[in-house]
Amino acid sequence: MNPSDPSGSPVSPRRDRILFFLLLLIALALRVAALSGRELWYDELQSITFSRLSIGDMLQSVIVFDPHPPLYYLQLHYWILVSSSETWAKLNSVFWSVLAVAGLYILCRRLVSARFAFYSGLLFAVLPIGIWYGQEVRMYSMLMALAIGSFYFAYEYLNFRRGAVESLGVFGFTAAFLYTHGSGFMLLISLVAYAALVWAKDRKIDRKIFFRFLLLLGIPASLYVLWMIKGLFFSMEQLQTPGLQEVIDSLAALVLGLFTYPIWLRWLAVILVLAVVAYILLRDGEWKLRSIAVSFFLLPIAVCLLLSYLIKPMWHYRTLMYTVPFLCMLIAWILFRFSAWLASRGLRAAWIRHGTFGLLAFLLAGASLAQQQGFSYPWDMRGAAQYLQANTHRGDIVYIIHPRVFWGIDWYWLGPQSGFNPLGLEYFQTAPNGAYLLNPVDTEDVDPGATYWIVYRDVDSLDPISPDRLESIVAFDHLFVARLRMP
Predict the structure, then answer these.
(1) How distant, in Å, are the alpha carbons of 142, 264, 303, 334 from that of 299?
(2) What pLDDT, on a 0 to 100 scale, did the predictor assign at position 203?
């Protein structure tokens, strides 16, 4: 048993395997439940649109339309060669999310013990934000898995062995992380900070090893610089320079998920998390956990805020998603220390620990259910496409105001076989029923005998079409379909 492990007697290899596979079953069950019940939203349809293109067109589309590097879209491209169904595309995220749970277990077992690994993994498996992005066709589950892998090999390299496996692990996982997300440099900051803390603690590593580690990070980072420069000029409306409430909301989302909770509950969740981190740092934390709390939680938050105020807005909970598995480790550690304190007073710590973790897992699972039932993105493109499919006829013309809404309507109406390529200067598609999808709006070439429709969001400008010409307006959340009255 690790001498710093407060969890009691060691776990046998057989029980270790049982705990590991039980954890994976829990994670898998929670992520495949209701997998097909939610339609793809704006960003997911972007993932689908890019990934079904040829490699050349996909890379060019990512360069033109997306601030993120192409690795996620590249692996999704090969994944959907098996099937182009929505469910299969979502299973890619299920795979990465369960892999992240497995990776967290292996990492925590290496750091502390199998029991600590199980409970850390259990918190991550039931965490609402982990489940949500374990079902969404975006890169965040992949990012969390890559961050865990990168730190695992960094931990091995800096503290124990510096062989080819460890070097390739640091290089490969870090490079993959960088080439998956536009804010991938945040992981570099965390890894360098962790290495500096290890170096400062007891000089386990000399200067030569430290700079060799920096070189392993620097090689992939040198190519990533091009994406960072591009990101400086790429506008993303969801990123912000936050006020205090925006900071609280984002941090609360990492713990409670995306359901809209009362303000007091969001504040309470953040205060409790910060109290956990402060206790580890100031009172009762193994140095491994202290270094993780600083480099993989506090520092990313501070850097994200600093850059948002000084350089460019980048504050968003998604920017900090890679910190979530490490946050689960910190919470699990406090619960283990609490049970050790109870044991020192003659109480049945194991039962209390099981009950505490069970209660917390139950509450988080309830939050996940509330999120599943109560949160949705405000554009129902599947509903809009089905309405148009049922109500349009041959020769009808459907104007779609926003280009990326066009991608979504195309996917849900025409299907994967449409062959739509977003690189075209004018989007024009023919539906199976003979209707035409068109972007941009063309008011000069109008056929008086045709029926015209328009699809728009509540934030879109309708110019040059007057709102008085809209009739039979049907709302699909914040997306609207209307028939145009001819002048």
Answers:
(1) 22, 25, 6, 20
(2) 65
Distances from the Cα of 295 to the Cαs of 34, 235, 286, 369, in angstroms?
Answer: 36, 28, 14, 31
Provide the pLDDT for residue 222.
87
pLDDT at residue number 195: 92
Half-sphere exposure of 153 (CA within 13 A, CB side): 22
Give the whole-angstrom CA distance, residue 285 versus residue 295: 14
Over the range 207-232, which residues count as b (16 or more CB within 10 Å of their CB) and which as e?
A: eebbeebbebbeebbeebeebeeebe
Measured distance between the N- and C-terminal CA atoms of the chain, rounded to whole angstroms: 81
C-alpha span between 482 and 470 (Å, rounded):
6
Mean pLDDT in each 10-residue stretch from start to end of the chain (487 residues)?
Answer: 51 84 94 84 90 92 89 95 91 97 96 90 94 95 97 94 92 95 92 91 76 90 81 67 91 92 94 92 80 95 93 89 96 82 65 76 86 86 94 93 91 84 86 90 76 92 86 91 85
How many other C-beta atoms can be found within 10 angstroms of the C-beta atom of residue 318? Answer: 20
**Chain centroid to CA 358:** 26
Q: How far apart are CA 94 and CA 144, in angstroms?
A: 12
Specify the long-range contacts of residues 271-278, CB closer than 8 Å, at least 24 apart.
273/327, 273/331, 276/330, 276/331, 276/334, 277/330
Reading the block at residue 161, the tokens are 């062995």
Count CA atoms closer than 13 A to 273's CA, side-chain side: 23
